[in-house]
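Researcher: Let's try something more involved. This one mixes different molecule types, so please make sure each is placed in the same coordinate frame as the others.
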Amino acid sequence: MTGSQGNAVLEVSDLTVRYGAAVALRGIDLVIGEQEAVAVLGPNGAGKTTLLRTISGLLKPAAGQIELDSHSMVGRPAYRIARAGFVHAPEGRSMIAPLTVTENLQLGAGRRARSDVAAGIDEMIELFPSLRARMGTKAGLLSGGEQQMVAIARALMAQPKVLAIDEPSMGLAPVVVDAVLEALRKVIDSGTSLLLAEQNARLALAVADRAYVLVHGEVVKSGNSDEFGDELIESYLT
Ligand SMILES: Nc1ncnc2c1ncn2[C@@H]1O[C@H](COP(=O)(O)OP(=O)(O)O)[C@@H](O)[C@H]1O
Ligand SMILES: [Mg+2]
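Model: All components are placed in one shared frame. Result:
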């Protein structure tokens, strides 16, 4: 269907989303394969967050199809879409500030059994070793980079098939962005597909296999990450 490898885990077809009379997404087609990392790039206001929120079931599309493992997700409530395997770490991280890191992770676990939740938390510490010393700390006291790690870990606690992350690099220093990138690579290696919404194209292309460029709610370019040279990045994304 596109350049994706293997079967599609997520397939979005001809998706249109409106806010009242304003069209935010127009006829979007997007596919994510098993263990594939896909970036959605585009300037502020392009529609990236709207796309993630619509797939998550938080917004209702005006038209189009969304299939996860060949099952239609349109019209399902958000908690059922998460349970089916599409889990979204929202823009701004949305930690529960007065709760500890451990408690935030427990909240991400959904319906997993208690013993399984403990095992899941151990896995997250393995994935993000820098969180080990922070597990008892209130999330609101963490640095931006640490909060982003917790946001990713919390989403992974639900054992998603597709992890969607909205602007993970926002507000982070370059060295911290590198640590987040490293963590995202480990997520992919562990077998989870990734949908990464980013204004920071260079960062996203460093982790994604393929990318789609959104401008004013339309896909203006898609392809393998290595097809996106500097010139293209400059012309669409700066
Ligand atoms: N709740 C909303 N109500 C009305 N318009 C919105 C709302 N959220 C976003 N928009 C508009 O939809 C477009 C896409 O926004 P968004 O999905 O947030 O883009 P991005 O995440 O790429 O910055 C923008 O024009 C934005 O102003
Ligand atoms: Mg956004």
